[in-house]
Amino acid sequence: MKHSLGAKTLLFPAPVLMVGTYDQAGKPNLMNAAWGGICCSKPPCVAVSLRKATYSYGCIVERKAFTAGIACEKHIAEADYVGIASGRDADKFAVAGLTPVRSELVDAPYAEEFPVVLECRLLHVIEIGLHTQFIGEIMDVKADAAVFGEDGLLDIMKIRPLIYDTARRGYHGVGPRLADAFSVGKALQS
C-alpha cells in the first residue's frame, strides 16, 4: 500500500513518466512520456507534453485528470512497451502485466508496480506546437513503503528511476549522491 505524502513537488531529474488516464469508456490506459517535469512549487504542479495524435491526449482532455508515475529500473520493459504501443489498439495494462489502481483523488488510474505516483487534476492546457502541454496540479503523491529512507523521506536509490537520454534514445539509472544541494556551492560565495 502506498503512503500519502501530501501535495509536494517530488519528481526527479529527466524522469520517464508513466501517464495514466481513463478513456471515454472507462478503460485504463498508460503511456510513457519523456517530455515532463515539475513546473510550479505553489501550487505543486507537474507538466507533461503530448502530441495530439496520442490516445492519452484525448483521455486527459475528456477526464480533466491524469497520474504521473515514476518509471523504475525493475519495470524497464513494461515502461518502454507502454510508450511504443497505443491504447487504441491494446489493453496496455493487461499486455504489460501491470495492475491498474483507481486514484482516490482524481479521475485517472496508475500502475501499482511503479513505486511513486503523482495524482493530478488538469489545471492548464497550453498549445505549443507539435506538443500540447498539460499542467496538472499535484493533489497527492503516493509511494510504496519500500522506497522510503531511514529519515522518512523518499530515497532516489531505492526508487531507481529511469532517466531518458534524448540524444541517444536510451534509458539510464541514477548514481550515488554527490553533494548536498543548496550547500556545496556556498564555498564559492563571496
Automatic annotation (TrEMBL):
Q: Cofactor(s) for this protein?
A: FMN
Which GO molecular-function terms appear in the entry?
FMN binding; oxidoreductase activity, acting on the CH-NH group of donors, NAD or NADP as acceptor
Q: Which organism is it from?
A: Chlorobium limicola
Q: What is this protein called?
A: Flavoredoxin
Tell me where the transmembrane regions lie: none
Q: Name one Pfam family in it.
A: Flavin_Reduct
PANTHER family, sorted: FLAVOREDOXIN (PTHR43567:SF1), FLAVOREDOXIN-RELATED-RELATED (PTHR43567)
Instruction: Give yes or no: UniProt keyword Cytoplasm.
Output: no
Q: Which domain of life is it from?
A: Bacteria
Q: Where is the Flavin reductase like domain?
A: 9-164
SMART domains reported for this sequence:
Flavin_Reduct
Q: Where in the sequence is the signal peptide annotated?
A: none
Family to which the UniProt record says this protein belongs? Belongs to the flavoredoxin family.
What keywords are annotated for this sequence in UniProt? Flavoprotein
